[in-house]
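Morning. Coffee machine broken again, so started the prediction first thing and wrote up yesterday's gels while waiting. Chain of 285 residues, entered below exactly as on the submission form.
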Amino acid sequence: MIAVTLLFCSNGMQAQTTQTKQRERGAVVYDLPRMDDVIIKKDIPYQDIAGSPLRMDIYYPPDFDFQRKIPAVIIVLGYPDAAGKKLLGSEFKNYIQLVSWCKIIAASGMAAIAYESTNPEQDIISLSNYLKTNEDKLKIDNSKIGAYTCSAHTPTTISTILNGSNNIFKCAVVYYGFFLTNDFKYLPQIDTLSQNMGFKTPRLAEPSTWKKDVPIMVIRAGKDNVPYINQTLASFYEKALNQNLPITLINYPDGAHGFDAYNDNETSRQIIKNTIDFWKFNLNQ
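Came back before lunch.
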C-alpha cells in the first residue's frame, strides 16, 4: 500500500506545517487569486477508440474571451486510466492534485489540459494531433505547448519528447520522475513495479539521438523514498549534460515524493512559482 501511494504524484504520509491553508486534501500547496474562477470546458472528445470516446478537460484563465489563442500546458500521463481507477479511485483528469495544478496554470494566464488515456504512448500523440486540427476552435496556440509530468508518468513523457515522436511540446517540467535509459542496472526491478502498478516504461533511445531543442526542468525530491527514482534521475542528468541538453535541475533536499501536495511550506511554493515562470518564459518568448 505504501508503494501504491508513493508512485503517484501524492502521498498522505508527509508531515504538514501548522500553516496549512484550508484546501482540499491532496491539492497543490499553492494558491493564486481567482483559481476557483477559471473556465473549465469538460469532457471534450479528442479520439474515438472502437466507438468509445476519450475525453479531455481544458482549463482557461478567468474571464478569457476566446478571441485569441493562448499557450497551454498538458498534464501528460504514463498510466492508463484503468490503473488510476484501481489505485486512486478516479481517472487522472479528475484527481485532486492534477485538477489543482490545472487551476494554478489557468489562473497564471495559460490553458491547462487534462485527459483520459487507455494507451499513454499513443494517446498523447492523438491528443497533440487533435489540438493541431482544432486550434482555432479551442483557442490553443499549438506553437506554445508545454508539458507537466511526475513520478511514474515520466518515462512516457520524456521518451515522447527526446526520442523524436514529440510533435508539439516546446518545454517540459518533471516532478520527482523516473528516467529510464537502457543501461540503467535496475530496469528489471522497475519493470516489476510497472507490471504491479500499471504504468508504462518506454525506454529512452541512445543519448546521441535525443532531441536537443526542448528545455526541460527537473525537480528532484531529496527525501524521495520511491526505490531507484533518484538514481534514474542522476543517471539521466549526467547524460543530458554530456549531450548539452537545455536542462534545469532544482534539488529540493527536504522534499518528499509528492511535495507539491504534502510539503506545505515556502520552499514548495517557491519551486511551484519557479515552475510557472519556466513555462511562461519558454512558451511566450
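The chain has ten helices and eight strands. Going to sketch it on the whiteboard this afternoon.
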